[in-house]
Structure formats: C-alpha cells, structure tokens
Write a structure and sequence with these properties.
By secondary structure, the protein is mainly alpha-helical. Helix 1 packs across helix 3, helix 2 packs antiparallel against helix 3 and helix 6 runs antiparallel to helix 7. It has a domain of about 140 residues: Alpha Horseshoe (Serine Threonine Protein Phosphatase 5, Tetratricopeptide repeat), CATH 1.25.40.20. Helices cover about 50% and strands about 5% of the residues. It holds the Pfam family Ank.
Length: about 200
Amino acid sequence: MSAKQATILPIEDLPAELLLHVSSCLSLRFASRLARANKKFHQILNIELYKRSRKGWFPLAFGACTDNTDTLALCIEVGAPVDFHIRQTMGDFRWCGESYYMVGGWRALRQAIHDNSPKAVKFLLDHGACPNSTPEELHGKGPGEPPFAIVFRRGPRSPVEAKAIAIALLDAGADTSTVSETQREELLKMKEIDGYFAKGWA
C-alpha cells in the first residue's frame, strides 16, 4: 500500500483574481497582514485594501502619523475626503519603529500636526485640507483647539518640524487670530528669518 502525497500549492502561486477573492473573505486586519507578506501580494491587494477602508479611512491616520505622503496620496486617489474625521482607535500600533496607543479622533491634518509630520501637513494642505478649525470641529466634533495652538504646544518637543508646519499653515492662509499677539509675531519671524525658532522652542 503506497501513501498518497498531498499536492501543495503555495498561496503566492494563486492567480490574482483568486487572491483578491481570498482577501475579500478576510477581515480588513488579516487582509492587510496578507498584503504585507510579500511584494507580489502587496501589489495585488493594496488598492483593494484602501477601497475597503472607506468606512473609517484609518490609513489617513497612518499616513498622517508617520509622515507618509504615499499613503495619503493613495487614500485620496481612491476617494478619501481630505478633511474626513477619523474615528478614534485605541490599541497598540507600531509604525516605523514608533508606538502609537491612540490614533484618530480628529482629521488627518490635526493628526499630522500633533505628530510633527511636516510633509504630511504640506501634502494635506496642498490637497485642500482646511488650515483652520472646520465647522464640525467648532461645533464639538473632535477637539476644538485651533491648528496653530497645537503647533505652539508641540513646538518645544520638535522645533524644526513645528516650524515647517507653522510655515505651511501660514502659506495656506490659516487664521493667526487664534493665537496671541506675541505668538503671531513669532510666526512671522519664523517665516521671515531662516534659523529662527519661536521663544521656548530651541
């Protein structure tokens, strides 16, 4: 009596259509893990995963946190509203060697300002993000702290990034009346004087 040998077909040899079907049967979390298994899976599954994230647009938060403009561009390409209010998620997220325990609860622009991500801030502003508090934020959806107030609060921790963010907000026409006269003067000095940082930042 001879033993039958099972034929093993590696999952990476599956046709793209079948791989997409398998991915659609998985939760978003497991499908994204599958997409990270190798380059081929990433190429096949990535856009579909972004489309599946439309309910909460969590990748916007990822792109904002990590200063990843490629991620932000993909979100916008598949239809993410640039000022979408991302649902707050608690958990243990590790991106680019950094730990994040709370993500979202605000727009991607606020997330990028809070996490000192100047490239993400500039990208979002260039793609139409409101440089001020949105009407929803002013009426209680998310934090009401104006963007410049966040910049001044975060400036001492990361002065170089905060200065770049402040200049990007100024260039986008952000309302400077939301900060004190002294802070407005500091903003103008940072914009005009190379190497200058607001008092208390450096």
